[in-house]
Amino acid sequence: MTTPASGPSGSEPPAPVLLTEPAEGTPDVVADLDTLERAARRIAAGTGPIAVDTERASGYRYSQRAYLVQVRREGAGTFLIDPVAVDDRVEPLVEALGTGEWVLHAASQDLPCLADLGLHPAKLFDTELAGRLAGFERVALGTLVELLLGYHLEKGHGAADWSRRPLPVDWLNYAALDVELLVQLRDALEAELREQGKLEWALEEFEALRTAPPAPPRKEPWRRTSGIHSVRTQRGLAGIRALWEARDTLARERDIAPGRVLPDSAIIQAASVNPADESALLQLPVFKGRAQRRQVGTWMRALRTAAELPKSELPDPAPATDGPPPANRWADKDPEAAARLSAARTALGKIAEENRLPVENLLQPDLLRRTCWTPPADLDVEAVTETLHAGGARTWQTNLVAEAVATALRATAS
């Protein structure tokens, strides 16, 4: 398949060609060790980069595990591997992928569940990240394939329950198409980045993504309950926390997505109303359902536990944080810091525009806030560069922004 010129530095793409199934037909699912070993030998014998993708069941299962792993390589073809069917014993695949370059789209979504299987790339190319650095406004896989390769992928099953067995044929086609053109897309994006003088930036970003440590567990994850901002009291927050933790325990035990056990909206309503007993709880809309009636004792015990907590054990109204306060409060708390941040944001906005980059890819917003809230003792470029590097900025980023950030910090120094 050829790559028509298009994108930020090319011409408009031709009318896209609709793809509803892979060119080589729907692959069979690899669901036993003998077939996996044969597939692994074919992959190892292939040439060039290796397209990799996964399918999870986030909206249905508690686990974020991979329920399907898609692999495609030139000279080998496409393979749809069911890790559940082989009890996650994918050692042949680990060896087959070896030191080859992996091509993924939005790699940060797939790398954790691949790592859980013992699969770690030796080299990485992320087509979504490449698209952002190349200046494309929309970087979904289907959009980039259409713009750069001239094909329209049949989509629509990304949010499906991939733990279902057997998987329908149209789902298998969808999964296979996710890797069908991934290497061609990689090549087109590499050419675009090279032409823009950004290829080294992208390679540095890919390596940082590849070697990033696992994300630490969230502190107080219950505070992410949708609608929590409407609950103002500490006792109400305690109710949310207790219900969230009870739900999380049930969801983990049953491997069901928490929202399917009890919606966030129900947690907020129950914590806000604080019903006196099970009968009152069952009068609330969501709790009238059969599933909630079966668990009403669990939810009521959680609410009672929260209601009986001593004041010293109630959650703080605001979440704990090791960073600066929200930027919208800076003007009151530290006007000079607010001025520093405003000046730095203006400067970075101009640099991002000049380089056709999203400003959040130019420098991580949280790192900019931290630097402006607590600037280094010295405000020269060298000190700012060191501070940004210590916060995780890459060399290409500090080369672009360190001088502008240092100037913004000096301009507002008292």
Automatic annotation (TrEMBL):
Pfam families: DNA_pol_A_exo1 (PF01612), DNA_pol_A_exoN (PF18305), HRDC (PF00570). Keywords: Hydrolase. SMART domains: 35EXOc (SM00474), HRDC (SM00341). Residues 1-10 have a biased composition (Low complexity). The keyword Hydrolase applies. GO terms for biological process: nucleobase-containing compound metabolic process. One of its GO terms (molecular function) is nucleic acid binding. Its EC number is 3.1.26.3. Residues 1-26, 307-332 are annotated as: Disordered. Residues 233-313 form the HRDC domain. This is Ribonuclease D. Residues 316-327 have a biased composition (Pro residues). InterPro entries: 3'-5'_exonuclease_dom (IPR002562), Exo_C (IPR041605), HRDC-like_sf (IPR010997), HRDC_dom (IPR002121), HRDC_dom_sf (IPR044876), RNase_D-like (IPR051086), RNaseH-like_sf (IPR012337), RNaseH_sf (IPR036397).
